[in-house]
Specification:
316 residues; alpha+beta; Jelly Rolls; six-stranded antiparallel beta sheet; three-stranded antiparallel beta sheet; 5 helices
Length: 316
């Protein structure tokens, strides 16, 4: 019998799971100590400048002029690969999604001094920018949709520098039709004013997807997710969420890293070889989802496996 101590469990308690199901989010919760996170990020931000092993080598991704260039750096960076599998995250995600879980995308969300806030939005199939579904749940789970996002604060996140906002309990009814088309207008970035607050959506106007053009989110019920470095929050992508603008009162950027999770039964990028959105396009030739918990009994998704080399994963 092994003398190794049992691993600490971070599973949601019944009360926490009930709160998550009711409100659509759980947290913030600690993933790293504050000083630990600061030290890690000082090193990793320099390593991430090297894109030689990034899975998206297309011109659009290399240019850095499209949000797609932020995608899936966990596939070439060891720290981020470890992060998406940390028990503090995966144990909680399994409580909501079940035992068999994939991480299908990660993204960085920087907000620099003077940047606009992100507009109120919901995402179910993630067809919002391209018009083509990026995740599809099986028919027998039609009451579900979207993905669980775990948004980790790599820096301070507060109302002055652009922290997240949620409207609790809004995750079970979609107010947007993702089959509609939004027009990409890069010149509109940092130029939109909505209800007296500078908000945009990376060059899109999310209001173009509203089912009711006269509908407005009830911002009186919004709550701010103030977070310290090393904390994370877990939420359904169908929850109404946004972020404050960066006021410029500090010259430090706000940086979040979002990891997105679904059960293995969900189809990822069905019938898709190229992602086209945010004014760019990248090939999925080197992409694969990561099994972070349980088993994968399906063959409908591109997958990667862990390696013993200097690279975290290899496509299979």
């Amino acid at each position: 019998m092994s003398d190794a101590p049992a691993r600490e469990s971070f599973s949601l308690s019944p009360e926490e799971l009930d709160s998550f199901r009711r409100n659509g989010y759980f947290g913030p919760f600690k993933v790293y100590e504050i000083e630990e996170m600061k030290a890690i990020w000082r090193k990793e931000r320099l390593r991430l400048l090297d894109r030689s092993n990034a899975v998206y080598q297309d011109e659009a991704a290399q240019s850095g002029n499209t949000n797609i260039s932020n995608y899936d750096r966990h596939l070439d960076n060891t720290f981020l690969a470890d992060h998406i599998m940390r028990p503090q995250i995966v144990d909680r995600v399994r409580g909501a999604l079940g035992p068999d879980v994939l991480c299908w995308r990660t993204e960085f969300f920087p907000k620099y001094p003077g940047d606009e806030g992100t507009d109120w939005h919901q995402a179910d199939t993630f067809a919002n920018a391209s018009g083509k579904p990026q995740i599809l749940w099986p028919d027998e789970f039609k009451e579900f949709g979207g993905t669980i996002t775990v948004w980790a604060a790599l820096t301070e996140a507060n109302e002055d520098n652009g922290c997240l906002q949620f409207i609790p309990g809004t995750h079970e009814q979609m107010n947007y039709d993702e089959t509609k088309k939004m027009e990409y207008e890069p010149d509109a970035i940092n130029q939109m004013d909505k209800e007296g607050i500078r908000r945009g959506f990376f060059g899109y106007d999310y209001r173009e997807l509203q089912k009711d053009p006269n509908w407005k989110p009830d911002e009186s019920k919004a709550v701010s997710m103030v977070m310290r470095p090393g904390e994370a929050i877990m939420f359904w992508s169908t929850l109404m969420h946004a972020s404050w603008p960066h006021s410029g009162k500090t010259d430090e950027m706000r940086l979040g890293f979002a990891a997105r999770y679904v059960p293995t039964c969900v189809q990822i990028y069905p019938d898709t070889d190229i992602i086209e959105e945010y004014g760019g396009a990248v090939s999925l030739d080197n992409y694969g989802a990561v099994l972070v918990a349980g088993d994968n009994d399906y063959d409908h998704n591109r997958m990667v496996t862990e390696t013993n080399t200097g690279h975290p994963f290899t496509v299979r």
